Amino acid sequence: MRKWFVLLCLLVIALPVAAQDAELEAWVCPEGFAGQTLNVYNWSTYVAEDTIANFEAACDVSVVYDVFESNEAVLARLRGGNPGYDIIVPTDYVISIMIAEDLIQPLDLTQIPNFANLDEDLLDGPHDPGNQYSIPYQWGTIGIGYNADLVGEEITTWQQVFEYDGPVAWLEDLRAMMGVALNQLGYDPNSENPDEIAEARDFMIENGGNVVAIAQDDGQALLERGEVHLTVEYSGDIFQVIDETGGNFVYVIPEEGTVVWVDNLAIPTGAPNPLLAHAFMDYILDAQVGADISNYTAYGSPNQAAIDLGLIDEELLSNPGIYPTDETSERLFFIADLPDAEQFYNDAWDEIKILLGR
């Protein structure tokens, strides 16, 4: 898995070529969708301000846009039966779970011609060989966001977070947080050993005395308001705060290593409008649309055409917190689907939250 990500980084951190002089042609919606509705279930703050409105105008359709705050939330929702969603955006290892449980349906890539715009090194991942069920949407890391004015020192390691004498927020992502703990203990972040998982649980409890919140993907808001000095968060969420506030906030990939992830577009089983869902996927993979999303969210773009055309802001492409260096990439790890150990992790996380009172 690390080799797959390192190959990705070798390509995307290269400086873009000059954008074409000719203006790009706008994406054109296939005919026959006028008056229809698309139901999207996505993470919050994860599209550009005009992404949805432009799709509605291009296809003369309406989009109902709901948000979720964790992979566990979208899994639980679909395990109870698809309530009517056409598009969902799960993280890589969750795609494996959904395929195994028949929660998502195969794609017809002939209806997604802009699939050709994607970085080949991001395709055919271990979570979905051949991209039969999913296509890359955005990618990034889980790291540390902090207020440099309040912390008063440079933060470079997880250990500093665990030892910090001040309010800290963790992320409500049990596999990521447990992966960090396992990695700190020298174990495989995807361990299936019950004793190692239990030791990681105890490590989190022993080092969680400064935790005032386990944030539902809103640690960046707690940080911005000064309710916490440090937070474990998704990379783009912190960079959005940096861009919006101009405050002295910092995002760092810890020296010990951390989680790298790829979020993906997929169509849940029982989707009421799978044809419009395919059109939406093709729209998202348009070079300009994809660039607009990544430029707004500050996450890594899987759209190689957007990079090659110089549509991604150079300031973002050259930021090692968004597009990590080769050296940093060697310390990153993916979360794997571990069906035989899923209950061990769930139980450990529940105990952590109970004992920390969070």
Tags for this entry?
seven-stranded mixed β-sheet; single chain; alpha/beta; globular; 358 residues; three-stranded parallel β-sheet; 39% helix
Notes on the structure:
The chain has 358 residues and is α/β, with parallel strands linked by helices. It has 16 helices and ten strands. The chain has helices at residues 2-12, 51-59, 71-79, 92-100, 148-151, 158-163, 174-184, 194-206, 219-225, 235-245, 274-284, 287-297, 304-308, 314-317, 326-329, 342-356; strands at residues 37-43, 62-68, 87-88, 134-147, 168-171, 211-215, 230-234, 249-252, 258-266, 332-333. The strands form two sheets. Strands 4, 5, 6, 7, 8, 9 and 10 form a seven-stranded mixed beta sheet that branches. It has a three-stranded parallel beta sheet with strand order 2-1-3. α7 (174-184) crosses α8 (194-206) and α9 packs parallel to α10 (235-245). The longest helix is centred in the last third of the chain and has 15 residues, at 342-356.
How would you sum up this structure in a few lines?
It is built from 16 helices and ten strands. The protein is of the alpha/beta class.
- Write down the Rg: 20 Å
Structural class designation: alpha/beta
The share of residues in extended strands comes to 15-25%
Backbone shape: globular
Kindly, what is the distance between the CA atoms of the first and last residues, rounded to a whole number of angstroms?
33 Å
From N to C, what is the helix and strand string? HEHEHEHEHHEHHEHEHEEHHHHHEH
**Nearest-integer average pLDDT:** 93
Question: How many DSSP-defined strands?
Answer: 10
